[in-house]
Write a structure and sequence with these properties.
Strand content: 25-35%
Number of strands: 7
Radius of gyration: 24 Å
Number of helices: 4
Helix content: 25-40%
Order of helices and strands: HHEEEHEEEEH
Oligomer: single chain
Structural class: alpha+beta
């Protein structure tokens, strides 16, 4: 049997027909990576913005989210607690807080300097968005990268101390990192990055494993 040779023009036509058939079966044909440039563009930190989760965290999950000494590179723990949100001073009213939790962890950085991690859980993304607005208030803004699904950096004075704060929303959780009594960076950015990752991990149904950068 004699082999059939396909000439150049006929080969090009055949290749075009095959490409057309494949394109009809692939919804992203010809689109490249354009679908990946949405909410992760701009000032997103770390690995980018996590999915906007509607998961509502339990008390045990909040305890897991809060950084433990291992995640903090062996820094000395000062305090840690998880209580109902209506026991927290920033809760608007007891009626608005059932089912939500307030978590807090504090670590010593140096003599008189501390990093704090606070969070409040909400029962929906919308209520978390509103809670974030209340938390940030009208405090003077700072220029920082974006963390979580949305975030605001600002300075705040309270109790005779002034510090730099980053409040972010990760799904249904509003979390704040702040440094008091010392230089904020790099701990403020590194701590917030870790905190956002830990919240996203737990909201996705995993154990929180994110840590501060290892030296």
């Amino acid at each position: 049997m004699t082999a059939t040779t396909v000439s150049g023009p006929r080969l090009a036509v055949a290749a075009a027909l095959v490409a057309a058939v494949l394109c009809g079966t692939l919804t992203a044909c010809g689109s490249g990576n354009s679908g990946d440039t949405g909410s992760d563009s701009g000032h997103q930190s770390g690995s980018g913005s996590p999915a906007d989760s509607s998961t509502v965290l339990s008390k045990e999950q909040v305890q897991n989210v809060l950084p433990d000494p291992g995640a903090m590179g062996g820094l000395d723990a000062v305090s840690a607690r998880v209580i109902t949100a209506d026991g927290h001073l920033d809760c608007p009213s007891a009626q608005e807080c059932p089912g939500k939790w307030f978590g807090h962890a504090k670590y010593a950085l140096s003599e008189g300097a501390y990093v704090n991690f606070d969070l409040i859980t909400y029962t929906s993304v919308q209520s978390a968005k509103e809670g974030m607005k209340r938390e940030v208030g009208d405090n003077p803004p700072l220029s920082k990268p974006t963390f979580g699904n949305e975030s605001r950096a600002y300075t705040k004075s309270g109790g005779g101390l002034q510090g730099e704060y980053i409040t972010m929303r990760v799904g249904t959780v509003v979390a704040t990192t702040f440094v008091e009594g010392g230089r904020s960076e790099p701990m403020l950015t590194q701590g917030t990055t870790m905190f956002a990752e830990r919240i996203a991990q737990v909201e996705a149904g995993h154990k929180a494993t994110a840590t501060l950068p290892q030296e």
